[in-house]
Amino acid sequence: MTESPASSEAASFDATSFDSLETALSFAEVEPGANQRWTTWPSSTPTERGPDPRPAWVVTSAGALDTELGILKTGKEADVFLLERAVPDDPTQHTLLAAKRYRGIENRSFQRSAVYTEGRSTRNTRDTRALAKKTAHGREVAAAQWSLAEFEALCRMWERGAPVPYPVQVSGTEVLMEFLGDDRGIAAPRLAQVRGSNAEMQEYFTQVVELMRVFAAAGFAHGDLSAYNLLVHDGRVRVIDLPQIVDVIANPQGLDLLHRDCVNVCDWFARRRVECDAEALFADLLGMLF
Ligand SMILES: Nc1ncnc2c1ncn2[C@@H]1O[C@H](COP(=O)(O)OP(=O)(O)OP(=O)(O)O)[C@@H](O)[C@H]1O
Ligand SMILES: [Mg+2]
Question: Domain spanning 191-289: which CATH class is it, in words?
Answer without folding.
Answer: mainly alpha
